[in-house]
């Protein structure tokens, strides 16, 4: 028996050479002392693999069409075997990926591991950070409940405000001028084909660079990086005191990764996936959703900045952030790596963490972020006039009520419209709705003439 297995193994190795290719990777020397701080990159990778596996499982059952998506998610959650757990793992896996990508990045920054010769490791890592956020966003849209549809409306309208290329970008995102079935096909293709393919390619490159340039040794105060001598010094150091990657360093990755996966599965079983909010339809009104937690800081930031600067922030914010992150390893690719010698870097990280954390808390208690759990006024008041009734339903269905209060129901992000009909003429109302302005999205593209007239009639009646 043993000899047969051995023979099969030998045959495989002779024809493929896989072990010969993998062994040097497992045995390659890494600096000693690469301890627990180094596990977060591989933890992110474990989460990503979990996302691929559960994502394929979900795609087997999900129907990316606007009239079937919501029902297929309900089916996955309530009826499919292990469907609830599958969705739960995919959700907590996404949360884990966002979390660990952040922690990994902070670790690399604090230890200045982006300095020579690892600039490209950092750049590919920054791209992976943004791809991870984009995956979180597109994934949330695929739920195609009120929340998902609303988020895509806001995203498209915000993109549309970018000078010159905005409209084109918004059309590219939605696959047309308005949201509909074609938009959902797009989000599906982005989330399942385009961005995962980019992530695979970049993860491959990132890992190749990690092996080629070597893991950064733990920094020591008074041992600066000098590009002229660093590589030679690193080689000698490895020969003298390096340890084989497997098992001396990799066991921590394996242990921590397993704990992460167990925790995610545990949360999926005990807590379960986030509840679906109402389908994009005004007749069902009894849930309390909000954007997923990792999107909250972004929502809160946009809600808090003064309205006049928001358009600029939407455009320049991400651009400046990308430029700053890209520039970092080129602005400082040598010198001290130890955090003790770089107090301002540590201080900066603490500020960023507090800032993002505060936005998260604010987004959680929100008076500003849209309130998705509001009830339609059409269910509270029984309108005799069919136009007012249609207007009331549209006011809810088009998301106005997430931001505006009428009859004591609705969000606080925009002004209370309970007596708007007293001072505003129908014309003024139309202009405001079509053009938006301040922190309000422009609705010109997403309401047809009749819908606009009904909403204006409804608002004019609020006295
Ligand atoms: C993202 C949140 C949001 C959504 C969604 C939204 N609005 Fe607004 N709306 C605002 C904000 C913020 C203002 C204040 C704008 C300003 O400061 O100029 C506003 C202002 C208005 C005003 C002027 C009121 C005043 O006193 O200044 C009207 C009328 C209005 N919105 C109607 C609507 C209608 C109708 C819809 C749906 C088609 C809608 N809004 C959707 C946030 C929103």
The residue fraction in helices comes out at 55-70%
Rounded to the nearest angstrom, the radius of gyration is 26 Å
Secondary-structure-derived class: mainly alpha
* Named CATH architecture of the largest domain: Up-down Bundle
Number of helices: 20
Heterogens = heme C
Strand content: under 5%
> How many strands appear in the DSSP assignment?
2
Q: Unreliable runs, pLDDT <50, ≥5 residues?
A: 282-289
Broad CATH class of the largest domain? Mainly Alpha
Q: Main β-sheet: number of strands, strand sense, barrel status?
A: 2 strands, antiparallel
Distance between the termini: 88 Å
Overall tally of domains? 2
Q: What is the 3D shape?
A: globular
From N to C, what is the helix and strand string? HHEHHHHHHHHEHHHHHHHHHH
CATH superfamily of the largest domain: Cytochrome Bc1 Complex, Chain C
The oligomeric status of these chains comes to: single chain
Record the SSE blueprint.
Blueprint lengths: L1 H15 L1 H10 L1 E2 L9 H22 L7 H10 L4 H28 L8 H24 L3 H15 L5 H9 L6 H33 L16 H12 L1 E2 H26 L25 H9 L2 H25 L11 H23 L11 H4 L5 H12 L2 H4 L16 H4 L2 H10 L13 H12 L3
Antiparallel strand pairs: 1-2
Structure description:
Helix 4 (69-78) packs across helix 5 (83-110). The termini are far apart. This protein folds into two domains: 30-365, Cytochrome Bc1 Complex, Chain C (Up-down Bundle), CATH 1.20.810.10; 377-460, Orthogonal Bundle (Cytochrome Bc1 Complex, Chain D, domain 2), CATH 1.10.760. The chain is globular. Helices cover 66% and strands 1% of the residues. It has a two-stranded antiparallel ribbon with strand order 1-2. The chain has helices at 2-16, 18-27, 40-61, 69-78, 83-110, 119-142, 146-160, 166-174, 181-213, 230-241, 245-270, 296-304, 307-331, 343-365, 377-380, 386-397, 400-403, 420-423, 426-435, 449-460, and strands at 29-30, 243-244. It contains 20 helices and two strands. The chain is mainly alpha-helical and 463 residues long. Heme C is lined by residues 307, 370, 398-400, 402-404, 413-415, 417, 420, 429, 432-433, 437-441, 443, 455, 459. The site of heme C (HEC) has 24 residues, from helix 17, helix 19 and helix 20.
């Amino acid at each position: 028996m043993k000899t047969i297995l051995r023979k099969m193994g030998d045959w495989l190795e002779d024809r493929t050479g896989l072990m010969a290719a993998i062994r040097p990777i497992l045995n390659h020397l890494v600096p000693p002392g690469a301890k627990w701080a180094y596990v977060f990159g591989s933890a992110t990778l474990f989460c990503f693999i979990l996302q691929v596996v559960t994502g394929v499982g979900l795609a087997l059952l999900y129907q990316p069409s606007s009239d079937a998506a919501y029902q297929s998610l309900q089916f996955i959650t309530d009826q499919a075997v292990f469907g609830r757990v599958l969705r739960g793992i995919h959700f907590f896996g996404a949360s884990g990926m966002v979390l660990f990508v952040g922690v990994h990045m902070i670790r690399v920054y604090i230890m200045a591991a982006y300095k020579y010769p690892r600039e490209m490791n950092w750049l590919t890592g920054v791209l992976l950070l943004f791809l991870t956020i984009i995956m979180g966003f597109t994934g949330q849209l695929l739920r195609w409940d009120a929340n998902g549809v609303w988020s895509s409306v806001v995203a498209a309208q915000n993109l549309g405000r970018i000078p010159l290329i905005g409209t084109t970008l918004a059309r590219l995102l939605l696959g047309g001028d308005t949201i509909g079935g074609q938009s959902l096909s797009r989000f599906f293709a982005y989330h399942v084909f385009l961005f995962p393919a980019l992530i695979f390619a970049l993860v491959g490159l990132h890992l190749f660079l990690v092996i080629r340039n070597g893991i950064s040794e733990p920094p020591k105060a008074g041992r600066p990086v000098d590009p002229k001598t660093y590589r030679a010094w690193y080689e000698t150091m490895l020969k003298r005191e390096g340890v084989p990657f497997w098992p001396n360093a990799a066991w921590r990755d394996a242990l921590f990764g397993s704990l992460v996966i167990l925790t995610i599965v545990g949360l999926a079983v005990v807590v379960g996936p986030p509840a679906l909010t109402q389908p994009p339809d005004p007749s069902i009104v009894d849930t309390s959703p909000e954007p997923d937690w990792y999107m909250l800081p972004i929502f809160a930031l946009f809600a808090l900045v003064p309205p006049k600067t928001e358009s600029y922030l939407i455009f320049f914010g991400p651009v400046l952030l990308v430029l700053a992150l890209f520039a970092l390893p080129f602005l400082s690719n040598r010198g001290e790596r130890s955090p003790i010698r770089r107090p301002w870097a540590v201080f900066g990280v603490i500020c960023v963490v507090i800032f993002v954390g505060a936005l998260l808390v604010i987004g959680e208690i929100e008076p500003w972020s849209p309130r998705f759990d509001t009830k339609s006024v059409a269910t509270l008041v029984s309108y005799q006039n069919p136009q007012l009734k249609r207007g009331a339903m549209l006011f809810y269905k088009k998301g106005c009520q997430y931001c505006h209060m009428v009859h004591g129901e609705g969000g606080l992000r925009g002004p209370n419209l309970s007596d708007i009909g007293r001072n505003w003429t129908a014309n003024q109302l139309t202009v405001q709705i079509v053009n938006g302005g301040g922190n309000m999205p422009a609705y010109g593209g997403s309401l047809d003439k009749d819908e606009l007239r009904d909403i204006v009639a409804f608002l004019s009646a609020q006295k």
